[in-house]
Amino acid sequence: MPRGRYSLHDPHDHTLLAEERFHCAPGPSGWRYVSQLTAPSGDHAGSVDLALDDLGRPLRLELHAASWQVRGAALDGVTWVRTDPAGTQATEGNVRAHAFTGTSPAFLIATARLLRLTPSEPATRVRLVAFTDPVLAPRTVDQSWALIAREAHATDNGPLTVDEYQVTALDTGEQHTVHLSGDVVLAAPGVELEHLESPPSTFD
């Protein structure tokens, strides 16, 4: 069960936005990721609880940020309920999309798990519902993912397989690179792995 800490930065000016302390693990039904976010001031900034099934689909998502809350799951595409800070209003949404995304590194792992790409495959298009900070506003985004390299690196605990993905935003054409090892993000725009207590889990 990997445990560790990511720092989350603005990908444009590298301003520190939050620290995300996480633990995650494969389980009998799929994979689960749980984290708590802390603002640079030291205040609690939110939380993430994401559970996937064996196929990488979101069984359950619960996000908290700035007193806003989102609960969602894969149902007729993806369905979610967003609740305001006062708790007096809840709005439901549904989009014919494959999964969710957001600022947490959990979503990069989840998308890679859903697509299950191999280095020989062409880029694959995926539609996601992104929840944007700080009020978890939903926005539908289209991306293409390609696994452009898979390399094994020698470590004290045995070989570590690192996958390099090229991710393209289809509305702007902007591209970026994501490096994953199992269920840990090693590097991505706005994401730095600061500490890892145990090796990444491997998926079958």
Automatic annotation (TrEMBL):
Domain of life: Bacteria
Protein name (Swiss-Prot/TrEMBL): Glycolipid-binding domain-containing protein
Species annotation: Streptomyces heilongjiangensis
